[in-house]
Amino acid sequence: MNSPQLAVVAKYKTVHIELLLKAAAAQNISTVVITGSAAEVTAQLDALHDAIILWRSGRLTPTRRAEVLAAAETRGCRLINQALLRTPLVRSKRYQQATVQAELGIQGIVTVEFDQLSSLTFPVIAKLPVSSRGAGVFLLSSISEASELSGSVNDYVYQSFIPNNGDYRIFMVGGVPLGVMKRVAKAGEHRNNLAQGGTGEVVTDKHEHATACKLAAKVATIFGLQICGVDLIRHVETGEWYFMEVNTVPQWANNGFQGVTGIDVAAKIINYVAILLRIGDEPMAQTVTHWYESNMEFLPSVAFHWWSRKYLWTLDDQAKGELQQLRSAVFGKTEMIEDSFRSIMSHSSINKKLLKERSEILAKYPQLLQISTVLAKTLFASTIYGEDVRGAALAAIGEEKLRKMWHDLQADEHELLVLSTSAINPLYFISNLFGESFGCILNPLVFVKTLERGVADIDSYRPRDLVYLATHAVIGASKFYSSPITSHRSAYERLLKLAEQVIEQYSDKVPLDAKLEFLVAHRILGTSSVLAAKILASASSSTYPHGVIVSDLHKAQGSNILKAEHRNVLYMMASQPWKKGSGLESGIL
């Protein structure tokens, strides 16, 4: 008897199991539901090979479960939510909070344990370490209420109470945030859970939705969970976001997440299973591309970046159609573009990590990133949409400021090596957009000399920045993937040779993103590197935890689907030839 493609393990057949079976049948994915005694479950799992295993519940002890699942992996089976095997404590609220609080950018709720009631500060939330659906959660306002808890005071973990008007459930599948549901408690109840009488509503505020999805994607990746429900809460007075918990076996049927959002969760889960089943039957870059593109409706913050690169690289008709749909969202009304550019210039936010690393030099260019953003939009308006908005860009930035920045960025080799991409990009934007009218024509031999100095004194610089200086010079010379490079080719080839030298000698200090971009730059020039096969093999094998997203062990924070989009679109590009046979000076759409 052939092994099924999908095995769902559960104590009982529930409505969720029925929905999964229906969705699997629609995609012709053979599925078995494994229930029964511990011995029966073990026997059925031991018979599996090359199957996807989705564990929802079971009768095995944690130790026995780990043994059986580990054995299944040796027979080619793949476990969804591998953390259940690798990190058995993942369901513990205590463990979850301790893990999250160690991660930058996610604020957890102070979680402690006490041996005596007199140590508690009220109000406080008491929770059983492992529970779900709001069960075993109590809001305590006094010692007398705490004394009524069943069991001992140290049977619970205690969390600070966060004043709120509801909490947020984000359903994650394969690293993708499917949507955000806000849960609001019924009158007189502190628990927002739907199972405790709360009501659910779809979050429509774009900023709130985007923030919740960003945090949830990070949480799912931190815990190595492919399917989970991430719960967040927002302080009603300060607006601060807090991580509450992650549910490893989230519910969605009836009046739950699916009923509130209208999203067919079972179909999305089976889509993910179908993608996992393709692994090994096609190039990994193709699998990654399919997963991103089949879920782009849930990834609006990266949609333009992905589709623009996809079209400029492959001339793909689907990408062309998506870009047509994104035009108004990205650029707004034509007559309002100058106002949009002025708004960008007035924005005071800055990449905090970049500022920390290069604060002294960036202080000389207080609007460098804003100017670069405006110029990038101006160039893509031309190369993608055939629109000339250079006048709006000049009006928003100021010609004198642009000319000064052009000269200052090239005046100091050390600053150029430190700023790297942050300097190279705006220089090429200016050259591509205003080169003739400003007399701003770049000579890449200047960058060759600069990079040679950096490589000779590499202990003074970050290897990744040296690689990015070379790759972005090549990309900039191609008008950011829209035109072949016809002049100074030997200089650009020299830049990539220097970058190759850095990657070979300092591979562990150069992120996968930079290595893939190095291959993309070679594709643009029509050249090759001896490192190509090794880099692509590394990308193909770097897909933990979601299996369909290229991660980077050196960038754990950037391994979720949103942060990793840049890496994955580069992987797609590096894996196939550039189809740009001629320039697209007047736009493609």
Topology:
Elements: E1 6-9, H1 15-26, E2 31-34, H2 38-46, E3 52-55, H3 62-74, E4 78-80, H4 83-86, H5 93-101, E5 111-112, E6 124-127, E7 137-140, H6 143-146, E8 157-160, E9 167-173, E10 176-184, E11 199-202, H7 206-223, E12 227-234, E13 241-247, H8 257-261, H9 265-278, H10 284-294, H11 300-314, H12 317-331, H13 337-346, H14 352-362, H15 368-383, H16 390-397, H17 399-411, H18 413-419, H19 421-438, H20 444-456, H21 463-477, H22 489-505, H23 512-525, H24 532-540, H25 565-574
Parallel strand pairs: 1-2, 1-3, 3-4
Antiparallel strand pairs: 5-8, 6-7, 6-8, 9-10, 9-12, 10-11, 12-13
Helix pairs in contact: 1-9, 10-25, 11-12, 11-25, 13-15, 13-16, 15-19, 17-19, 18-20, 19-21, 20-21, 20-22, 21-22, 21-23, 22-23, 23-24, 23-25
Q: How would you describe this protein?
A:
The protein is of the alpha+beta class and 589 residues long. Among the domains are: 6-80, Rossmann fold; 93-268, ATP-grasp fold, B domain (D-amino Acid Aminotransferase, Chain A, domain 1). The protein is 49% helix and 11% strand. The protein has 25 helices and 13 strands. The chain has helices at residues 15-26, 38-46, 62-74, 83-86, 93-101, 143-146, 206-223, 257-261, 265-278, 284-294, 300-314, 317-331, 337-346, 352-362, 368-383, 390-397, 399-411, 413-419, 421-438, 444-456, 463-477, 489-505, 512-525, 532-540, 565-574; strands spanning 6-9, 31-34, 52-55, 78-80, 111-112, 124-127, 137-140, 157-160, 167-173, 176-184, 199-202, 227-234, 241-247. The strands form 3 sheets. A 5-stranded antiparallel beta sheet has the order 11-10-9-12-13. Helix 1 crosses helix 9 and helix 18 crosses helix 20 (444-456). It is globular. Residues 581-586 have low confidence and may be disordered.
